Amino acid sequence: MNSSERTPLINRRPSIPVNQSMEEEESDSEENKANVSEKILSGDYESLDYDVCENDLYQLEERKKSVKEIMIIEMLRWLVMFFVGLLTGLVASLIDFCVIQSTDLKFSIIKKYVDKCVDNKCMEVPLLVWVGINGGLVIVASILTACFEPVAAGSGIPQIKCYLNGVKVPHVVRLKTIVVKVIGVIFSVAGGLIIGKEGPMIHSGAVIAAGISQGRSDTFRKFDLRIFEFFRSDTEKRDFVAGGAAAGVSAAFGAPVGGVLFSLEEGASFWNQALAWRIFFASMVSTFTLNVIQSYIKGIPWDLSYPGLFNFGSFDTTSYSAFEIPIFILMGVLGGLFGALFNQLNYILTKFRRRYINKSRDRVLEAMIVAIITATVGYISLYFNNSCSPMVQDTKDNTVQVYCNDGQYSSTATILFQSPEDSVKSLFHESKGMYSPSTLVVYCLCVFILACWTYGLYVPSGLFIPGLLVGAAWGRFVGLCLNYIFPDVGWVDFGKYSLIGAAAQLGGIVRMTISLTVIIMEATGNITFGLPIMIVLIVAKWVGDIFNEGIYDMHIHIQGVPILGWEPSSVLTNLSAKEVMSHPVSVFNMRESVGRVMEVLKTETHNGFPVVEDYIPNPLDSSINEEMSFGTYRGLILRSQLIVLLKQRVFGDNGDQFYNLSTKDFRDAYPKFTPIRQIHVSQYERDNCEINLEPYMNPAAYCVTDNALFPRIFKLFRALGLRHLVVVDKHHQVVGMVTRKDLARYKVTRKFWKARIDELLMSTR
Q1: What pLDDT digit, counting tens, does each position of 539-551 carry?
Q2: Where in the numbering of this chain does the CBS domain appear (predicted)?
């Protein structure tokens, strides 16, 4: 490999510029190009610093802390979690109120035109009204997302999962993001897209937590609550973001325990008992706040029976028998198969979008087209599958007549003319004759296809409700089939099979087990179906994993995010640190000249540098030797720390400027550090001044020997939330550096019972 193919950080493996990956030779087929682009690890993502820098300044601050100060900081952590839960509940209430009002208004207008045009033979008018309303609402959401804050698209769960894993996703927890998220999800759901508002609540809760914990805003720079300044670090913010995500789940489903388990199962990189209690507290406050506000909106103040945005309704009178468990297992298999199909189709569609629909204008246009087609499909289903059934007392209050004669109702119109959440509850709880088999089949197919197309649009959207809708529809159809086969038995309950189908389908898509089981149990308010739900979720995951991975993990890998799993793959146990590490390494001496620090920071993109003794850089020697060492290892210093030192001019002729700074100066600069090219030093300072790095470096930074194996390195990174791991030889000489990307570039692909190892290319910008 020639030197032009190397990046400053990665010199032992191939890397390619992002644009170059799309500029292969003309003779290459489109398929080959797609395969190349899939094997690229994006250079857009950096790691977060979850390891505490235990330098002299930190140790001095810790020694000065009194017991009272420690207790105050702990109380402030609980206070932040309280406000996280409170504001998450308020935001959830706002979203729910706006969606309900706008959806009811939309369907009342459409229904008025349908009723009017049945007799006047003007049936194209309701279609135009429906299409116009949907398209207008969705285009607003798409413009906000595609043009102002693209990271607000989708549910946000993959991004938050990456953040908790230790990946710095640009703009993911900004104030601008939550504004676009909240407004966008209201317009998207009201615009009739097959989405839910529950998924975005998880992202919203995480953004709220990140913002409150810092006590200031990058948007409103003059706003600064000094009371929370101790929490201005990646380590502290991570814990609050985990609490915010849990509070979002709690607000969405009224499931505080499920929220805690969601944060644990879906990527929290650090966990202890104290953190679990604080996260549970935030979840409890969130669902309580939503409950109180909903009680006032419903006109029954302090009637605390509205715990979440979406409640599955009561299944108190429903039971199951042991002989039904094989049926539930088969439904779990179906859920895994349908979930794998959904994910694979969405994967193909996402690759197509990344290649051809990559401009804001095209993204807005696609969203509008999907909104129009969704409305058109609904209208066509209403017109051509107009299943009319006689009204009975049990269904009279929840039906829509449209084209049917007096005394009859349209089951298709009934399920279409309501919000997706109400449709799920209707499938769970409506009486036996409410929905015909043809209605369920058509509705299931339409929702499956439209939900698959919709997920990935540049609008805020959730996947929980579409998954539940599809599963509830085919689950109820299974109940109808069983009732047809066994007409005289009493154990066939449509709501029961609808619930099991919903759990199986959603589990087959997202591949969550523990947290999803508890979320569904809390949302139903009944533990009777705990065992069947566990069974179908586990079976759905096992079956789905044979074919592909969960939808969230799939989108993470498509974007080339260097996320680390819970455990290293067993097929990578033979790799050593020497084979994994980046080499050569840029290092600094304990006392380093200002000129060299400036030069290294400007010419290289590293974010961490080993601090060594006895290293003499030789600019004339450009050869790369695998056995090269770079001085005796003494510690690690970050780019962000060096920038603060340069900006504060902590240098002099002898480098002794230790007491000019404290840890507060570094926290005040967090999280946006001044770019190195905006820092100016004179030529005299470059040539004659030194920085004493010893007080500021982390002398306790982790390191491994060059013969350490991949599993040990991986577990250190995953468990401790490391950003850098220095590799030394037996003489404690620095020989390399391991970063997150060095570990994530080994991708193990499993299909059926076969495994293949791919070494991903590293993209540069």
Answers
A1: 999 999 999 999 9
A2: 697-759
Count CA within 13 A, CB hemisphere, residue 40. 22
Highest-scoring range by mean pLDDT, 105-114, 137-146, 304-313, 314-323: 137-146
Contact 247, 209 (CB under 8 A): yes
Q: How far, in Å, CA of 262 to CA of 260, rounded?
A: 5
Instruction: For residue 758, give the nearest of 47, 158, 23, 41 by alpha carbon.
Output: 41
- Say if residues 143 and 364 touch (Cβ distance below 8 Å): yes
Contact yes or no for 306/294 (Cβ under 8 A) = yes
Cβ within 8 Å of residue 419, ≥6 positions away: 99, 100, 103, 189
pLDDT band at 67 (very low <50, low <70, confident <90, very high): very high
Provide the 8-state DSSP code for 269.
S
420 upstream amide cis, omega within 30 of 0:
no
b/e per residue 271-285 (b: at least 16 CB within 10 A): eeeebbebbbbbbbb
Let me know: does 64 contact 177? Beta carbons within 8 Å: no
- What does the block give as tokens for 425? 């509850």
- Report DSSP state, residue 298: T
- Please state the CATH superfamily assignment of the domain spanning residues 15-34+567-764 in this structure: CBS-domain (3.10.580.10)
**pLDDT tens track for 464-504:** 999 999 999 999 999 999 988 888 777 778 889 999 999 99
Cβ atoms 692, 656 nearer than 8 A: yes
Asked whether residue 3 carries a pLDDT value surpassing 60, the answer given is: no
Q: How long a stretch of residues is the chain?
A: 765
CA 598 to chain centre: 36
In order, the DSSP letters of 664-714 are: HHHHHH-SSPPPGGG----HHHHHH-EEE-TTTSBTT--EEETT-BHHHHH
Using CA atoms, how far residue 71 sits from 68, 77, 282, in Å, is 5, 10, 19
Half-sphere CA count of 570, side-chain side, radius 13 A = 2
Long-range contacts, 96-102 (Cβ 8 Å, 24+): 96/197, 96/294, 96/309, 97/297, 98/186, 98/190, 99/185, 99/186, 99/189, 99/190, 99/197, 99/419, 100/419, 102/137, 102/186, 102/190
Q: How many degrees, rounded to 5, is the angle at CA 122 between CA 121 and CA 123?
A: 100
Residue 610: partners with Cβ closer than 8 Å, 6 or more residues away? 585, 587, 588, 630, 631, 633, 634, 635, 636, 726, 734, 737
User: For position 671, what pLDDT does the model report?
Assistant: 82
Q: How far is CA 131 from CA 136, 380, 402, 457, in A?
A: 8, 12, 18, 18
The residue written with tokens 């246009």 in the block is: 365
Q: Is 626 helix (H, G, I), strand (E, B) or coil?
A: coil
Domain spans in the chain, listed from the N-terminal domain onward: 15-34+567-764
Q: Which residues are bridge partners to 592 per DSSP?
A: 691
- Residues whose CB falls within 8 Å of the CB of residue 70, separated by 6 or more in sequence, listed in order: none
Whether 142 and 458 have beta carbons less than 8 Å apart is answered as yes
Residue 520 to residue 188: CA distance in whole angstroms:
25
Pairing status of strand 408-410 against strand 388-390: antiparallel
Q: Do residues 625 and 658 make contact, with C-beta atoms less than 8 angstroms apart?
A: no
d(CA 160, CA 171): 11
